[in-house]
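Page 37, continued from 36.
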C-alpha cells in the first residue's frame, strides 16, 4: 500500500443495537457509538388552556399540563429517552450534551379584549440559575366586537447544551398590560406546545 494510506482498526467487540461505527479518540481506530443526526425528538402539547393575564408576566408551560404528543402517528416517547420537564417549574432537562433545535408554538385565543403586544418566549440557562430570554416573538390581535379571535405565533432557537446539569430551558408566553388571552389546548390535536430535536453532538 502507498505510504499515504491509513489503516483503521476495527473494535474487538460487537456493538449494541442502533449503534454505528464511528471514529474514536484514538487515531487509526473505530468504535461503536450513536449515529450523528437527529437522535432525540419529542413534542409536548398542553392538555388544558393556560391563561395569560394582563401584566401577568412570563407564564411557563408546566410539566403537569403537558403530554408527549402521540396522536395520529406522532412518536410520543419513542425517541425521547432522558427528557424531563418539571411539573410546576416547566424546566426542561436534556438527556445528553449536543446541539438542540427548540421550537415553541402558541395558539392564542381572545374573547373579550384586544391584545396589543403579547409574546411567546423560550428561556435558557447555562448556569442552572439565571434564565435569560433566548428567543421571543410578539403578536397582536384586534378582535372584532363580540367575536372570539385566534392567532398562531411560533419561535425557534438553537441551543448548545454543553453541560446537562447547567444547560436547561423553559417554554412559555406572556400578555401585555392591555388584554388577556389564552394558550389554547386540545385533547388530541397539537395546538400549543413545543418541539425539541437533537441535531448533533457538541
Amino acid at each position: 500500500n502507498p505510504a499515504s494510506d491509513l489503516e483503521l482498526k476495527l473494535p474487538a467487540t460487537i456493538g449494541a443495537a442502533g449503534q454505528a461505527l464511528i471514529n474514536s479518540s484514538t487515531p487509526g481506530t473505530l468504535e461503536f457509538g450513536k449515529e450523528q443526526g437527529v437522535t432525540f425528538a419529542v413534542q409536548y402539547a398542553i392538555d388544558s388552556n393556560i391563561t395569560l393575564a394582563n401584566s401577568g408576566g412570563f407564564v411557563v408551560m408546566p410539566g403537569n399540563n403537558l403530554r408527549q404528543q402521540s396522536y395520529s402517528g406522532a412518536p410520543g416517547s419513542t425517541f425521547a429517552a432522558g427528557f424531563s420537564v418539571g411539573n410546576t417549574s416547566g424546566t426542561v432537562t436534556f438527556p445528553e450534551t449536543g446541539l438542540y433545535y427548540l421550537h415553541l408554538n402558541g395558539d392564542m385565543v381572545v374573547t373579550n379584549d384586544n391584545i396589543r403586544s403579547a409574546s411567546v418566549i423560550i428561556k435558557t440557562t447555562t448556569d442552572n440559575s439565571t434564565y435569560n430570554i433566548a428567543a421571543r416573538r410578539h403578536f397582536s390581535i384586534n378582535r372584532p366586537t363580540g367575536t372570539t379571535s385566534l392567532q398562531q405565533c411560533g419561535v425557534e432557537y438553537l441551543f448548545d447544551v454543553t453541560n446537562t446539569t447547567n444547560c436547561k430551558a423553559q417554554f412559555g408566553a406572556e400578555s401585555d398590560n392591555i388584554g388577556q388571552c389564552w394558550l389554547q389546548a386540545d385533547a388530541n390535536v397539537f395546538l400549543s406546545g413545543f418541539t425539541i430535536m437533537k441535531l448533533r453532538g457538541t
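The mean pLDDT is 82. Flag for discussion at group meeting. Residues 65 and 99 are 26 Å apart (CA to CA).
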